[in-house]
Amino acid sequence: MKKITAAAVIIALMTSLCGCSETNLNSDSLLSVSGSSENSTPENITVSSANPMVITDNEIDSDITIEKGGVLTLNGDIELRGDLYVEGKLEVSESAIIFGDGVIHVVNSFDDIDCKGAVKVKIDAPEPVEIDGVTYVGGILLVNKKYGLPRDFGEDIGDIRPELKNAIEQMRADTGFGMTLREFSGYRSYATQEWWFNYYCETDGYDNAVTYSALPGHSEHQTGLAADITRTELDYADTPEGKWLAANCWKYGCIIRYPEDKVDITGYIYEPWHIRYLGKSTAKLVHDSGLCLEEFLEVDSV
After folding, report:
1. Phi-psi region of 133 (alpha: psi -120 to 50; beta: other; left: phi over 0)
2. pLDDT, tens digit, for every residue of 205-242?
3. For this structure, is 271 an active site residue?
4. Rounded distance between C-alpha atoms, residue 152 and residue 139, angstroms
5. Closest Cα partner for 80 from 62, 107, 95, 96?
6. Phi/psi at 240 (nearest 5 deg)?
7. Which of 96, 166, 232, 235 is close enough to 117 for a disulfide, judged by CB 3.0 to 4.6 Å?
8. Which of the following is catalytic: 271, 294, 295, 298?
């Protein structure tokens, strides 16, 4: 790998001013401007709408800011050592592996990252934002024991959202070996969740109920972005279908929301049947991180 040097950035800017739509900063182009020392690496690089960049097989020591309207594409092996601020568009191609001790900072929304490759560096989420009583982190709707929803949220939909429905249907079509994979429980209104929670409290006691049932207004099912698949029994994780779901649902934009090793963080028991839709790029980022959603978004659950 080669370092991104000041000379390479100057050439990129000159090329942009000459009317070229994109500058490819790869190992070959850096070799053509060889002779720059490591000390010539600029401290800051800005990617603007007038200067989109493609970086291939490089070590990045500089801090990079992708401005709104700017596009940075990463290919091949990228060792990120500085801070990368995403205000515009970050495209991580299928060939890309991003590693190192640098940090990718999501300034506005996770939708600004189009990830098809592997991102192994820390991703810093923006602060939670509340809009009309609903909490979002980087555009991701957040519901857990701490962050809730208004009573009437989701009533205008009354069903799981089309993107989740399509993901489930595609998973069913792609399993290919007689799976029953289907939506067992999808959207639940505030009132429905209230009934179920009260029922579990009466039959199992409050302290037990809160480990597997959400308080009304705190259920992901109310968002229309979550669904229980096939059946809600722990041995589902050991079935061929449950194993397939855990290994593959991220490819369709979903995550297993309450993993077995994150009970102390999510506040809920392991639910191998409960999936949450995030979109393909974001689901891949969460899956590859090995973190649960609270850890990934850097928020508390209680």
Report:
1. left
2. 999 999 999 999 999 999 999 999 998 899 999 999 99
3. yes
4. 20
5. 62
6. -55, -40
7. 96
8. 271
In degrees, to the nearest 5, what angle opens at C-alpha 167 toward C-alphas 229 and 136?
Answer: 90
DSSP H helices in 139-226: 162-175, 190-204, 206-209
Phi–psi pair at 49, nearest 5 degrees: -65, -30
DSSP 127: P
Distance from C-alpha of 97 to C-alpha of 250, rounded to nearest angstrom: 18
pLDDT number for residue 4: 58
Q: Answer for the pair 185, 221: CB distance below 8 angstroms, yes or no.
A: yes
> For the chain, what percent of residues have pLDDT higher than 90?
79
- Four-residue CA torsion sign, 216, 295, 272, 280: positive
If you average pLDDT over residues 292-296, what whole number do you get? 98
Give me the phi and psi of 138, to 5 degrees please: 60, 35
Q: How far apart (Å, rounded) are the C-alpha atoms in residues 84 and 106? A: 9
Report d(CA 276, CA 274) in Å as an integer: 7
C-alpha dist (Å) from residue 283 to 21, 110, 116, 248, 278: 31, 10, 11, 11, 5
Most confident residue range from 4-8, 29-33, 71-75:
71-75
Backbone angles phi, psi at 39, to 5 degrees: -70, -15
Q: What is the mean pLDDT of residues 192-214?
A: 96
**Alpha-carbon distances, residue 50 vs 21, 93, 103, 263, 275 (angstroms):** 8, 21, 25, 47, 40
